[in-house]
Design brief:
Belongs to the peptidase A1 family. This is Xylanase inhibitor N-terminal domain-containing protein. By secondary structure, this protein is mainly alpha-helical. It has helices at about 20-30, 45-50, 65-85, 90-115, 120-135, 140-150, 170, 175-185, 190-200, 210-265, 280-285, 295-300, 310, 320-330; strands at about 35, 290, 335-340.
Length: about 350
């Protein structure tokens, strides 16, 4: 007979694995240079659950605040052009940096118009948005169509129109393409939005038939600005004046755009998922990054880097983003990613 023993079952709380612990997320944040990395959002949380916690006032459009932002942007951009005209050559980079950042503020005005958060008058929004995008040589309607697509498919592996990872088979498909990708995501990365601007906004095949007419109107506006504005600049200031007053600030704008856009959704821990695995709440709250920049950048760019509430709802005007962010921190803070402009990843 084999001897037996009675084994008493004792309920002992299972210790969480390191990957589920607060220490793990803190360690991960430190390794990336983030202030905080959010824990994974539970799969049963919906975007509506998150939206329902936001105060209603954050969705309200205030015409006075909207036009104050326009005045601030026009003033800061004009100041930048004045600095360029007066600065000695060794101070020109600082003047270009200011003016390029102010031009990003011009873009944010158009961005609000595209999201229908600038004015209750939609015609006013289309006019202001088109005018705001002209100095940047951005066709307003094509950009709006593709940006709406980005919001509807944020961090989808293939469908997202913003930055997304390069598939392994694509990376290995051609030595030339591989070198271009390495260069693009390496030394050319601060200006990758120029390639994005060309690829996504000037090809009729990328738009639906019911969008073509509005796309062509936007193209006509942009090409008209180039045909009239550029020769006027050259006539008044010469080719070097065109480079000083338009090209260099435009490159500064694209530096900001590339940096901001890469930072908003791209980090080693943020997954890009196929459409059948994609979850809207996880992508918009858990897969979007809030980043703090120096105060002058935040002011000139209208808080566009307070980006998580903008992705939870694109119907929040820029001047309400900080209030919305505070509400999200209160209710969903442990799932949110927060970084600073000098993070090391």
């Amino acid at each position: 007979m084999r001897s037996t023993r009675t084994v008493q079952a004792v309920a002992v709380p299972a210790a969480p694995s390191f990957a589920d612990s607060a220490e793990f997320w803190k360690h991960l944040a430190e390794s990336y240079g983030f202030r905080k990395i959010g824990e994974p959002l539970p799969g049963n949380v919906t975007l509506k659950d998150i939206l329902d916690t936001l105060p209603k006032r954050v969705f309200e459009i205030d015409n006075v605040k909207a036009w104050k932002a326009v005045l601030k942007t026009v003033t800061s951009y004009a100041l930048g052009l004045f600095m360029i005209s007066k600065a000695p050559w060794y101070l020109l980079p600082f003047a270009w940096a200011w003016t390029g950042t102010a031009a990003t503020g011009v873009f944010v005005i158009g961005h609000d118009c595209a999201h229908k958060t600038f004015s209750k008058n939609k015609l006013v929004e289309d006019i202001v948005g088109t005018l705001a995008f002209l100095p940047l040589i951005y066709p307003y309607e094509p950009w709006r169509f593709k940006h709406d697509w980005h919001h509807a498919r944020t961090n989808m592996l293939v469908e997202d129109t913003a930055w997304h990872p390069v598939r392994e088979e694509e990376f290995d498909s051609s030595p030339v393409l591989r070198k271009a990708i390495i260069f693009g995501y390496g030394p050319f990365r601060p200006w990758m939005s120029i390639a994005h601007w060309l690829i996504w906004h000037f090809d009729l095949k990328k738009f639906r038939p019911n969008q073509i007419q509005r796309v062509k109107i936007s193209w006509a506006c942009v090409f008209g600005f180039m045909a009239i504005g550029w020769p006027l600049i050259i006539y008044k200031a010469g080719i070097m004046g065109w480079i000083k007053f338009w090209l260099m600030p435009w490159l500064g704008y694209h530096f900001c755009m590339s940096t901001f856009t890469m930072m908003h959704h791209t980090a080693p821990h943020i997954p890009f998922k196929s459409s059948d695995e994609w979850n809207a709440a996880q992508a918009q709250l858990n897969g979007t990054i809030h980043c703090d920049y120096p105060c002058w950048i935040e002011i000139l760019c209208h808080d566009i880097n307070v980006h998580i509430p903008h992705h939870v709802s694109a119907r929040i005007p820029h001047y309400n983003l900080r209030v919305a962010h505070e509400s999200l921190q209160e209710n969903w803070g442990k799932y949110m990613n927060e970084a600073t402009w000098n993070c090391v990843w």
